[in-house]
């Protein structure tokens, strides 16, 4: 109920702000300089100077199903992740692979690019179908395993249920407000669908504030007043994750309606910081 | 409620006539640069749109449709109301009609769906609803594949257009057919019925043969058809909706026109020996599924019977006039495995049986039995295309007084009998039936493999089944 009320509050607020920034897609005034980017301009494999891969089902990390009862086995094979025609392609496939029924990929900048604050944006065309769960998100550093989720913090810039092709979700998870109790907002397209065109998903993250955008529409802002626990987004450094999960608690399993393969296309990922 | 103009047509008689007119029209239209048909998307918004007329189906309750001012959607002042009759209603067994633009048709090519709001007096499923039925040939007919699930609240429904570029002159704007639910009639309403170009429809998929790869054994000269034509789209709410669509939306092709050709209507003509795959596309989408024609050889027709028609009571032959038959395969459950694949080669009809164990031809259920008192033999031609195992036997029985004091004439043919059970050539069987004392009430012919299991699962063809003297 609390979440619902907050959501209504935010959407009222939004009306005012939206009209103010509707024609302005420039980064927040303080975040104007690109400090990290991948334009995915070179066909072939993912640039491992920028990204690493999560492999498997999460079992080796002690979180089978990646903590969410997900059904896929993540690989670094080109069938699941590659760069082609200027886009990163992460493809979920239905195939028997090392005990799993689906394969997909998850790439992350852990240990290669970690940062606090800034504007994070990615231009993405999403896949579709029940049980398909793509995401563009940030996870906080765990200080070599001494801190655990949700204390480390998680910012979901974009999550999407393949069965709701006009809706995306932006959320934060922290201590006391994680998983089902995360602070979240939905953004619904009135025209078009996320699986038929590219959209720009972004956050502008500054001390005590995370603003969520789809294209030039800010649809939510989360501040320490909105969370029911400690604000863990002011000092930890966070890394970027892009993945397509199959099944799991957020989406449920694929259905007979789900067609495979399903591909998330990412045109670019850019991070803006304050000018040096 | 007010009753709108009624036109009741004998659809079959009239549509033949109008089909000719329609084709005449179409030819002229194709010569014009700009047909200029109305792009008016409205079907029923508060009232009938310009040119719209109501034509109930023959046999339906004629006044099932009315215009209602009491139950409407939103601020609408009038809705379309449909009263589905109870089972046994003398005024009609079901409700069904087309709504047609009689101002020459609409250009719907800029829309991608027919949409409307609907609700029922109870949760129910409208059996058939769609567009493209015009009684002029229904070339672009479309209907929801699994009917339309009504609730008791107004809900918006979407019926997608498979390829709107085909609908440059569309007259059939809406049609429906619905019968009682578990014997009970009910009422439902449609409102805000219109064509729209919805931005949230995506991920189009098409299928033929219901998306399956269907293999058909055939012969040069025989014919078949592409069936199971569907179009599926994902709605803005993420739910798929599938319609059945007329062949005219699709483009068909054959992988080997020396084996089989396919026309615009999906009719397949087998012209030679070999394998041909019939596939289809819908606009720029390749349809899932295919019809694989396996044409093994040229078909050799059975010998033409020479008995004088006055000495014959024919059950299945193109050489004689046949008596009525209930069916050529009774599909006797649960033990029968035999399926039918009857076919026609160059105008000659042949019974095809596959997966054989036993099968019966019956003529005693809804048709008169045969009085064969004057007849002395049951004659037929049989053809086994595949090799005959040594332990094979085909028993043939003719039954009198089915279900009563049954008596049977029977014969069994084997590889070593005369005639012999052989493959690759027609076998003429001429069974003496005079052992049947009473032949006045004949009702069944039964084939079985009980006397020798070698034919279990076999295929065979039958032609020219008749009683003679």
In total, how many beta strands of chain A? 17
Estimate the mean pLDDT confidence of chain B.
Answer: 90
Termini separation of chain A (Å)? 43 Å
Sequence of secondary-structure elements of chain A: HEEEEEEEEEEEEEEEEE
* Greatest interface (CB-CB under 8 A), with counts per chain: A-B, 16 and 11 residues
Q: What form of chain B results from the Cα inertia axes?
A: elongated
What is the molecular shape of chain A?
A: globular
Oligomer description: heterodimer
Structural class of chain B: mainly beta
Mean pLDDT of chain A comes to: 90
Biggest sheet architecture of chain B: 13 strands, mixed
Q: In percent terms, what proportion of residues of chain A is strand?
A: 35-45%
Radius of gyration of chain B: 27 Å
Outline the low-pLDDT stretches of chain A: 1-24
Helix segment count of chain B? 1
Q: Can you count the helices of chain A?
A: 1
What helical percentage do the residues of chain A reach? under 10%
Major beta-sheet overview of chain A: 10 strands, mixed
Helix content of chain B: under 10%
What distance lies between the first and last C-alpha atoms of chain B, to the nearest angstrom? 68 Å
Low-confidence stretches of chain B: 1-33
Structural commentary:
The complex is a heterodimer of chains A (276) and B (469). Chain A has 276 residues and is mainly beta. Chain A is 7% helix and 41% strand. Chain A contains one helix and 17 strands. In chain A, strands 1, 3, 4, 5, 6, 8, 13, 14, 15 and 17 form a ten-stranded mixed sheet that branches. A seven-stranded antiparallel sheet of chain A has the order 2-7-16-9-10-11-12, with no helix packed on it. Chain A starts with a helix and ends with a strand. Residues 1-24 of chain A have low confidence and may be disordered. Chain B is elongated, with a radius of gyration of 27 Å. Helix content of chain B is 4%, strand content 42%. In chain B, the strands form six sheets. In chain B, strands 2, 5, 8, 9, 12, 14, 15, 17, 18, 19, 22, 23 and 24 form a 13-stranded mixed sheet that branches. With 469 residues, chain B is mainly beta. In chain B, β20 (260-262) and β21 (267-270) form a beta hairpin. The model of chain B is unreliable at 1-33 (pLDDT under 50). The chains are: A mainly beta (276), B mainly beta (469).
């Amino acid at each position: 109920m609390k979440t619902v009320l907050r959501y209504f509050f935010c959407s009222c607020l939004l009306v005012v702000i939206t009209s103010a920034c509707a024609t302005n897609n420039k980064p927040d005034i303080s975040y104007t300089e690109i400090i990290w980017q991948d334009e995915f301009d070179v066909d072939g494999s993912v640039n491992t100077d920028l990204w690493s891969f999560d492999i498997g089902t999460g079992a080796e990390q002690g979180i089978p199903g990646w903590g969410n009862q997900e059904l896929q086995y993540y690989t670094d094979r080109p069938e699941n992740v590659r760069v082609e025609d200027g886009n990163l392609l992460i493809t979920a496939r239905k195939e028997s692979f090392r005990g799993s029924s689906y394969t997909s990929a998850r790439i992350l900048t852990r240990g290669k690019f970690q940062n606090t604050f800034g504007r994070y944006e990615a231009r993405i065309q999403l896949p579709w179908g029940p049980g398909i769960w793509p995401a563009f998100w940030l996870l906080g550093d765990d200080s070599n395993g001494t801190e655990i989720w949700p204390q480390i913090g998680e910012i979901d810039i974009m999550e999407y249920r393949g069965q709701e092709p006009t809706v995306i979700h932006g959320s934060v998870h922290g201590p006391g407000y994680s998983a089902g109790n995360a602070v979240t907002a939905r953004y619904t397209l009135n025209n078009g669908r996320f699986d038929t065109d590219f959209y720009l998903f972004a956050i502008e993250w500054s001390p005590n504030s995370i603003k969520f955008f789809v294209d030039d529409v800010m649809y939510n802002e989360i501040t320490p007043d909105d969370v029911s626990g400690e604000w863990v987004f002011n000092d930890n450094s966070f890394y970027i994750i892009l993945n397509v999960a199959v099944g799991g608690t957020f989406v449920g399993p694929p259905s007979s309606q789900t067609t495979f393969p399903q591909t998330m296309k990412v045109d670019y990922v850019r991070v803006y910081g304050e000018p040096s | 409620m007010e009753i709108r103009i009624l036109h009741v047509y004998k659809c079959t008689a009239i549509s033949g006539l109008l089909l000719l007119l329609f084709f005449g029209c179409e030819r002229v239209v194709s010569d014009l640069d700009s047909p200029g048909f109305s792009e008016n998307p409205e079907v029923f918004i508060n009232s009938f749109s310009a040119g719209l007329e109501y034509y109930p189906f023959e046999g339906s309750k004629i006044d099932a449709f009315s215009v209602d001012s009491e139950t409407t959607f939103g601020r609408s002042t009038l809705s379309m109301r449909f009263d589905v009759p109870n089972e046994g209603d003398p005024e009609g067994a079901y409700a069904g009609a087309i709504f047609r633009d009689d101002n020459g048709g609409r250009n719907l090519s800029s829309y991608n769906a027919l949409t409307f709001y609907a609700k029922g007096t109870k949760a129910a499923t409208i059996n058939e609803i769609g567009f493209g039925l015009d009684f002029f040939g229904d070339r672009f007919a479309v209907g929801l594949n699994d009917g339309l699930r009504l609730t008791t609240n107004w809900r918006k429904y979407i019926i997608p257009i498979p390829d709107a570029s085909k609908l440059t002159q569309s007259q059939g704007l809406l049609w429906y057919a619905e019968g009682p639910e578990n014997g009970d009639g009910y009422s439902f309403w449609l409102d805000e019925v219109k064509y729209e170009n919805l931005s949230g429809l995506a991920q189009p998929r098409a299928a033929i043969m219901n998306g399956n790869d269907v293999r058909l054994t055939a012969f040069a000269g025989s014919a078949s058809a592409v069936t199971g034509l569907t179009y599926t789209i994902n709605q803005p709410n993420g739910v798929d909706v599938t319609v059945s669509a007329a062949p005219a939306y699709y483009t068909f092709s054959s992988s080997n026109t020396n084996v089989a050709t396919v026309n615009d209507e999906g009719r397949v003509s087998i012209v030679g020996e070999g394998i041909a795959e019939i596939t289809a596309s819908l606009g720029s989408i390749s349809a899932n599924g295919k019809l694989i024609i396996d044409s093994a050889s040229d078909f050799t027709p059975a010998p033409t019977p020479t008995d004088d028609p006055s000495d014959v009571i024919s059950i299945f032959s193109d050489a004689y006039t046949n008596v009525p038959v209930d069916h050529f395969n009774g599909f006797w459950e649960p033990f029968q495995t035999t399926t039918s694949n009857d076919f026609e080669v160059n105008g000659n009809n042949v019974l095809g049986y596959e997966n054989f164990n036993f099968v019966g031809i019956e003529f005693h259920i809804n048709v008169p039995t045969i009085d064969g008192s004057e007849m002395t033999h049951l004659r037929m031609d049989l053809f086994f295309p595949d090799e005959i195992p040594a332990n094979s036997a085909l028993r043939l029985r003719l039954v009198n007084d089915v279900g009563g004091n049954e008596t049977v004439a029977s014969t069994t043919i084997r590889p070593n009998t005369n005639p012999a059970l052989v493959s690759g050539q027609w076998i003429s069987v001429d069974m003496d039936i005079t052992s049947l004392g009473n032949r006045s009430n004949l009702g069944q012919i039964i084939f079985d493999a009980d006397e020798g299991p070698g034919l279990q699962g076999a295929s065979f063809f039958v032609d020219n089944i008749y009683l003679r003297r």
